[in-house]
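ok, trying the design again with the full structure, not the truncated one.
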């Protein structure tokens, strides 16, 4: 067997040939870049994503939130507990339905929305691509997520 045949046989498992790796690496780097502006808010990136949902839609159940942000209860529960300890959200169980957990913003959580306005400004330009490429990338990623959701 020649080197060429070995290369061909294993080309599907070469890191350079993977779509998932640059997506993973870029996502990790973007989350790292968010740390500094989010420090001012006392939020992690995932908490910030959750807060953006609450600022846009208002209170909702943990299940609804998980569906929107693509996180399971095992990830969301501790995150929401930390936000509650910070006085940013309240978590309540409706009477007669102990399985449902309703999450709502507190006044402090609502006020944080105003403070968060600096984050997009600080993050603009961190991905150095022309605007049309960024728009295309966002569109492709949205389409990718939509097709992945259909396969669940």
């Amino acid at each position: 067997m020649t080197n060429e045949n070995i290369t061909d046989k294993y080309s599907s498992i070469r890191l350079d040939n993977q779509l998932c790796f640059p997506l993973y690496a870029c996502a990790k780097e973007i989350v790292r870049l968010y740390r500094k502006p989010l420090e001012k808010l006392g939020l992690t990136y995932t908490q910030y994503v959750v807060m953006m949902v609450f600022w846009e839609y208002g209170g909702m159940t943990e299940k609804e939130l998980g569906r929107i942000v693509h996180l399971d209860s095992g990830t969301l529960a501790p995150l929401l507990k930390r936000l509650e300890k910070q006085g940013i959200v309240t978590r309540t169980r409706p009477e007669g339905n102990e399985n449902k957990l309703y999450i709502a913003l507190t006044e402090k959580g609502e006020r944080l929305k105003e403070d968060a306005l600096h984050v997009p400004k600080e993050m603009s330009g961190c991905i150095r691509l022309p605007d049309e490429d960024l728009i295309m990338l966002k569109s492709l990623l949205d389409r990718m997520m939509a097709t992945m959701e259909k396969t669940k």
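Keeping the full-length input from now on. The beta strands are 60-61, 89-92, 102-105.
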